[in-house]
Amino acid sequence: MPGTVVVDPQDPSVGARLRSGARLVICAAVPWYLCLWWGTSTAPVPAALPAVLILREDVYAAPRLAWERLLGVFVGVLLSTLVLDRLPPSSLSFLAVLVCGCAGMYLLGRPGSPNQQVLITALMIYATALPGYPLARLAETLVGIAVVVLLGPLLWPPDPYRSAAEGLDAYRAGVGRLLDGVAGRLARGGPPAPPDPLPEGARLWLRPQACRAAFDRAARRRRTRKPPDGLDGRLGLAARSAVTLQCFTQELQERARGLSAGPAAAPGTPAAPDPALRAIAPLVRSTALALDLALRGEEFAAELDRARGLDLAHRAAHPTRHDAVLRAGLHLTHEALSDHLASRR
Question: What is the pLDDT of residue 221?
């Protein structure tokens, strides 16, 4: 609720950034010195590149990214070697490498994410036409990828359970601020929603799915460790409430557009406020409080009963179908809270 301070997990702390930086430095330095010891070249830059290009916050994605990079390097080496074997260095051979590299980049990439490593490697092999360089680049890339895949996850591995819990807290605080702002505007007779929705709102509704993915990833990989008590159920509630409350806020947006587009009583005079909107403000606050308590893992049955009573009172005072649509998102949120309460007993 208002006043709650939560660190957004999408904005990493200084400690998390230092750990990521240290992981990158180690995973870049180890293959560099391994290749120097092996004698592949005097400056094995390709061995250090996988750490820069593969390592992400989700270190468990490294195997997939490593496979894509290795495939791109192999195809790039093959393309450039074949072209240089048949054509002398010239504008024609450069154009052939460029066209073939672009084609391979899109053929081996994923939708919306071409494998740029194909073209990069092909051009570097073309620009460094030295005997043995293609094989040395391939070997150095293999060493770099092996270090990233095998060593990276062992260096300060992230805790997906903790990430899921932090994301849940951030979602809880964001929803609390959003609903508090909505209730305040409605109680004052102001517009039901801002004229232009903020992009942060769209990210707020997607956060529970990201938390759920982190939790499921941890459950698959950490079979010997149990998740925090109740976290699974609270994540499920967050995912359901994100859908229902998004419907509610979208309906408020539609009401706001309708009020702004409707004819005013006189030029320069705003349209009369909808009494159903002002009357729903206590229901919004009560629903927000019940959801906040539930997502914290605290007792919320009394507040849920109060919210349901306010829902019935609003339904009796404003029984039209138009007003039923307005209440639908909140009513479905109550159903999600009720199911969550039943699962805890």
Answer: 66
Domains, the chain: 14-154 (no CATH), 160-259+271-344 (1.20.58)
Q: Compute CA distances 311 → 26, 147, 191, 279, 296, whole Å.
A: 58, 59, 21, 10, 23
Q: Tell me which residue has tokens 């359901």.
A: 240
Question: CA 89, CA 306: separation in Å to the nearest integer?
Answer: 79
User: Please, which pLDDT band fits residue 307 given cuts at 50, 70 and 90?
Assistant: very high
**Helices marked H in 156-300:** 160-187, 199-221, 231-261, 275-279, 281-296
CB 164 within 8 A of CB 231: yes
Per-residue DSSP letter, 113: B
Q: Report the distance separating Cα 205 and Cα 228, nearest Å.
A: 23
pTM: 0.65
Give me the numbers of helices (H) and strands (E) for the chain, helices first please.
13, 0
5/334 Cα distance (integer angstroms): 25
Q: Say how far residue 85 (Cα) sits from the centre of its chain.
A: 46
Angle between helices 117-127 and 133-151 (to 10 degrees): 140
- Judged by DSSP in three states, 130 sits in coil
Contact by Cβ (8 Å): 55, 148: yes
Q: Length of the chain in residues, anyone?
A: 345
Task: Tell me the C-alpha to C-alpha distance, in Å, between residue 305 and each of 94, 179, 283, 298.
Answer: 73, 19, 11, 15
Angle, in degrees to the nearest 10, between helices 281-296 and 321-344: 20
Phi, psi torsion values for 146, nearest 5 degrees = -60, -40
| Cα–Cα dist 126/99, whole Å | 13
pLDDT at position 286 over 90: yes
pLDDT at 334: 95
How far is residue 194 from each of residues 34, 70, 178, 252, 332, measured CA to CA in Å?
58, 48, 11, 9, 23
